[in-house]
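Design request, tokens follow.
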């Protein structure tokens, strides 16, 4: 692993968290529910990036492959559900 990849994973997690916060703030102001679903998606993507960092750098002897894929899958499913639910 290159030395900077861990920092990139953490920066991606922080960027996802910042996007989620801004989406939730937008939802609080406008009550557009698609912003809520998008915010939940970005929270899941933040967890996905953080667990990826933990898997590769904090616990290199333990494989967290399944655990790190679950938040990403749930994030995409939440966004897909929100898109379908709001299109009706």
């Amino acid at each position: 692993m290159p030395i900077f990849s861990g920092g990139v994973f953490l920066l991606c997690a922080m960027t996802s968290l910042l996007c989620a916060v801004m989406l939730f703030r937008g939802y609080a102001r406008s009550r557009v529910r698609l912003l809520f679903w998008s915010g939940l998606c970005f929270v899941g993507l933040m967890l996905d990036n953080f667990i990826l960092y933990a898997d590769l750098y904090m616990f290199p002897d333990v494989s967290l492959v399944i655990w790190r894929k679950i938040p990403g899958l749930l994030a995409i499913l939440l966004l897909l559900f929100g898109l379908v639910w709001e299109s009706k």
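Comment from the thread starter after seeing the answer: thanks! Residues 5-87 form one domain.
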